[in-house]
Amino acid sequence: MKFDDVLRQIGEFGPYQKRTYFFAAIPAILVAFETLSVIFIFNIPPHRCAIPGYHGDSYYVKDGNHTLMLNHSIPKTKDGWDKCHVFTEALNDVIVANYHDVIEGTENGTVSGNESDVSQMTSYRTSDSLSTCDSWVYDTSIFESTIATDFDVVCDRSVYRPSSNMISEIGTLFGVFICGILADRFGRKIPFYIGGLALIGGGFGIAFTSNLITLNVCRFVLGIARMAVFMNGFVVGMEIVGPSKRVFTGLFIEVLWCVGELLLLLFAYSIRQWRYLEIALSIPSIGLMFYWWLIPESPRWLASRGRGEEALQVLEKIAASNKTQMPKVEETKGLFEADTQFSLRQVFQSRELRTRVLIVYSNMFVIAMVYYGLTLNVTNLGGDIFINFLIMAVLETIGFAVPTFLLDRVGRKPVYCVSILVAGLACVISLFPVMFGAPEWAVIALCMTGRLFVCTAYGVIYVYGAELFPTVIRASAMGTGVTVSRVGSLISPYLADVGILVGGKLENALPLVVMGSPAILVGLFSLWLPETKGTRLPETLEDLDRFRSKRRCGGCYGTGDEDIKEMTVEGEAEGLTATR
Predict the structure, then answer these.
(1) How big is the CA angle at 120 (ends 115 and 122), to the nearest 5 degrees?
(2) In terms of Cα–Cα distance, which of 294, 278, 129, 152 is closest to 207?
């Protein structure tokens, strides 16, 4: 008897399992906080160079004298005052001294000199040569302060934002490796708890940081912590429920992620200073300190490590809460069978498997890249950032709900292919509204359309991809796919900010085009993949080879309806993997 057979007999989703799943899954909300808060705390508001020597300068023009000083000191561009340059002569000591003669009360930012005195300053500028500025003033109408305004992450330093986001993703990628190793060796509970403590420390560390180096160290730690908490909480929740419930529970945790997005929006709208916002988002994580007593160790992991008595204790609690009977001891004989490990050599032995690996992994890579790229890009779109984020969160909820209703009705392949292709096309088409001067909302609408469909593709690929691999390597193959997807998310910060780094007319549309093009390409590749709905899933590499020779027929392995349903559900469940 296999472990899933035991769960079917004692109950697949009873009170004890629901309670454990709830406690294991609810941290997805906290992970969403720390993952997406960067959209608000690292926002770069409108800004310009500060007037040299005038410490009472502000982003808003106060009066006519202030305007004259701006004209004298800072060049104008088509978008307003220059963000990165001042007139070179405005930097010399003579001009600064004249400012101090003319300007009084600089501490409170008022100008008491008369207009004729201020206008005389223009006579000191004899050339239009420019120099880069080293101080800025910011629009504080939306955010009172952000990381970008406190540390002047603008102009030549604007690359620091995508670099900081990349460091966070490197931490997440590192977390995939280290947490996977720790979870296999020491169980799911220990790395989950350590990750929870790191989530608390990293969050408060960011809030009280005084420099960018410490900030990036904390973000790296948070990247590891997010993966430790989300992945191990996900696995504990999935491994304690029966096979027929794992598709639902695997997708429901994504809904909790979306709940986290909406709560984050509420916090960000209410708290406009980034340090206070980060503190408010970190306080709920303190509850993770009590999780050692709230969730059990995964009984499946205990069984796989030969700790049968401990595994049986958890299973007995499940049976007691479901008011069912445990199977007889002799029936649990196969409960401690080890999983077959994935070998790269096996990939290259089968042409069919090799092709599927390349297509599925390339799709995972691009989906993660586009998903996180569009998420980070919301701060660069025009319009109200809070409304944009709200639309994004609502569409993401819809996008993750779609697979639940369509996969078993329409099929995996059509839902996935349509989703990824429409997502890519919506992003690429955004180029045309910019080129032809369409309203700003047209680009936002296309971006949100891409966001909706890439979320659907995100939800489908981990079910569909798992069913394409044979049982003997399914879990390991999907685990490797998750690692590949993290590499895609690693480069997404630079893609999201490529418009800012390049500048020009296409600033808003360029990131969408860069992300949409590969999405269309891998979407076309995915058309080659077979449909898996209603077919018995491959168990061995030989099954794949036989499938290749009978590619044009349906139900290639010839099985009864009952077996088809059972194999499909188990395949879906086995392939669902924590990906945040």
Answers:
(1) 110
(2) 278
Helices (H), 430-502: 431-435, 440-468, 474-496, 498-502
**Confidence label for 251 from pLDDT (cuts 50, 70 and 90):** confident
The torsion of the CA quartet 257, 304, 463, 17, rounded to 10 degrees, works out to: -50
pLDDT digits (tens, 9 = 90+) for 254-311: 889 989 999 999 999 999 999 999 999 999 999 999 988 888 998 888 887 778 788 8
What is the spatial distance between Cα 350 and Cα 356, in angstroms, rounded to a whole number? Answer: 10
State the residue for tokens 């670099």: 163
Distance CA 120, CA 111 (A): 15
The CA-CA-CA angle for residues 546, 462, 422, to 5°, reads 100
Please state, in angstroms and rounded to a whole number, the distance separating the CA atoms of residues 428 and 452.
15
Run of H or E residues at 550: none
CB 254 within 8 A of CB 29: no
What is the DSSP secondary structure assignment for residue 271, as one 8-state letter? -
Which position has the token pair 């292709």? 421
What distance in Å separates the CA atoms of residue 294 and residue 96, rounded to the nearest whole number?
64
Domains of the chain: 1-43+145-338 (1.20.1250.20), 47-139 (no CATH), 340-580 (1.20.1250.20)
CB 14 within 8 A of CB 349: no
